[in-house]
Amino acid sequence: MSRHGELGTALHRWRDRITPAEAGLPADESRRPPGLRREELAELTGLSVEYIVRLEQGRATSPSVQVLTTLARALRLSDGEHRHLFLLAGQSPPATGHVSDHVPPSVRRLLGQLSGSPCAVYDAAWNLITWNPLWAALLGDPSMQQGRGRNAAWQHFAGLPSRVSHTLEQEARYEAAVVADLRAATARYPTDEHLRFLIGDLRRVSARFGQLWNSRIAGFHDSDTKTVHHPDVGPLALDHDTFVTPGNDLRIVTCSAAPGTPEADRLKLLDVIGPERMAEADPTQVPDPALSAAPTGPVTSPTPVTPVTSPAPTSAADH
């Protein structure tokens, strides 16, 4: 059975076990089947009956965090069932604490093995936690940035200097996806004070962020092509891919180029040149003094990853 089929089966089972009285609905003595009717679950959640049918039949493949949270509350799921619901739906499980900056050893090994590709790890609030040397060589040394300068959303919406450029279409996709991901993070981490401050400050400095935030747009930043303007090797049009680790809610971001392209050759050259050749006057290395002391979340000491000697699997490097 597919994951979506398992999600539908689980929802049906949870719906069947709860009585209307337990859900706060008036009892109906004429009922024959046990549990809640779909119409009753729709009333409790504000979802349409048609959408609940699609969920239970495995035809609604991408329920949002908000939908899942509403279903879990209406069905009176335990903490374990709540987590299981999110995993079946392909979402990171909910958390009641704070955004974590913990990078497990397996992820650090992955960064080391991907030494031939620029790679970095962000937390659920898009704070940069760690990176490999080629990431620093390509995009600038993150250790030179302070405070909010290491947050991808802040860097973009506050207009900080960056080596990355977008087309109008790419920029629209990126902005919508990042805002949607941050909104989902606030649902998973409702008590995280630093995340709340970040959202408030973004809404204050960027009308565009505020507009997207108020639209409650849905989406996720998974892949796109972006151009990096490097002071030594020139422009590189690279594929940027984002992978989420469900258990840790981390975002692993990689940059890659198709084999045999000028971009692939420039990446190889940059790997040889290394971070020590980064232009000293690069404006992306200037900290943001106005907000370097602002609350930035739990990320306080990101560190680069030293590559290991074992080669990465081809399938991973190709991403």
Helix content: 40-55%
The whole-angstrom Rg is 22 Å
Got a strand count?
Answer: 7
Q: Would you state the CATH class of the largest domain?
A: Alpha Beta
Summed up, the domain count is 2
Describe the largest sheet.
Answer: 7 strands, mixed
Q: Give the overall form.
A: elongated
How is the CATH topology of the largest domain named?
Beta-Lactamase
Distance between the termini: 28 Å
- Poorly predicted regions are 283-319
Strand content: 5-15%
How would you describe what is shown here?
The chain has helices at 3-17, 38-45, 49-56, 65-74, 79-88, 105-113, 133-139, 152-157, 168-188, 193-205, 207-215, 262-273, 314-317; strands at 119-122, 128-131, 164-165, 223-230, 234-245, 250-256, 303-304. Helix 10 crosses helix 11 (207-215). Strands 3-4-5-6-1-2-7 form a seven-stranded mixed beta sheet. A hairpin with a 3-residue loop joins strand 4 (223-230) and strand 5 (234-245). It is elongated. It folds into two domains: 3-88, 434 Repressor (Amino-terminal Domain) (Orthogonal Bundle), CATH 1.10.260; 105-317, Beta-Lactamase (2-Layer Sandwich). Helices cover 41% and strands 12% of the residues. Residues 292-319 have a biased composition (Low complexity).
